[in-house]
Amino acid sequence: MARKYAADPIDDLAGYEHTLAQVGVRLRHHQSVLEIGCGTGTTALRLARSVRSYMACDISPEMITIAKEKLAREPVESLHFVVADAQMPPPSWDTGLNAVQRFDVALAFNVLHLVPSLNATLQAIRRLLPAGAVFMSKTACIREMNPLVPWVALPVMRAIGKAPDVLVFDALELQNALERNGFRVEVVQRHGTQGKDIRVFMVARAVD
Asked: Which of 67, 97, 125, 178 lies at a CB distance of 3.0 to 4.6 Å from 41, suitable for a disulfide?
């Protein structure tokens, strides 16, 4: 589905631009950034020029292929795309000093509800961030939808292969998961401009 996904327009462009603006004001030129679940690289290409280095990963090789095609057309020296699972840093991140590379900022947009384990993913992200580093995410909180969607419609669609497995949580449960796994949540916002917005934007800081 990667090529179709790449061709589809952004559903809520104004909301997307608001999110980019909120991320952008928190980035600094000296920082190293990791984006998890980067898809076809649209967000990475928008943000990478604002920082010293930007590594963007996705579990889908075809998504990363498309992202690299975009990067070839629009080169950004600081930006690198790599295939990786959100819960397992790839060998290319290894510093060679028996420790994985650490980042000043981690980003995860529209992906935390799609991972196999929210706790395991947040723990993996926390290991890549020193205390004081920032994690920004925008996540669909499926539990905030009509109850028929997560408990009836989604199971039926999964059974016939029309929907992926998703995690069902609300914004408070997501905030609690972040704080349980080494983060302090500092900002909770909704950027949608088209009615009810279940995609919560959070800024969290890694703590000891």
From this structure: 67
- For residue 43, the domain's CATH number is 3.40.50.150
Sort strands 105-109 and 32-36 into parallel, antiparallel or unpaired: parallel
**Is residue 155 included in any domain, yes or no?**
no
- State which amino acid sits at residue 131: A
Tell me how far apart the alpha carbons of residues 49 and 131 are, in angstroms, rounded to a whole number.
24
Show the DSSP H helices in the chain as ranges. 2-7, 13-24, 42-47, 61-73, 118-127, 148, 154-159, 171-180
Asked whether 200 and 143 are in contact (CB, 8 A), the reply is no
User: In the structure encoding, which two tokens stand for residue 63, read together?
Assistant: 């998504």
Summarised one tens digit per residue, pLDDT across range 167-202 is 999 999 999 999 999 999 999 999 999 989 999 999
* The one-letter amino acid at 42: T
In a domain, 134, yes or no: yes
pLDDT in tens, 123-132: 999 999 999 9
Tell whether 149 is covered by a domain.
Answer: no
Q: Is 175 helix (H, G, I), strand (E, B) or coil?
A: helix
Q: Which residue range(s) make up the domain with 180?
A: 2-138+170-206
Q: pTM of this prediction? A: 0.88
- Dihedrals φ, ψ of 204, to 5°? -130, 150
The encoded tokens of residue 91 equal 């060998």
CA separation for the pair 173, 93 (Å, rounded): 30
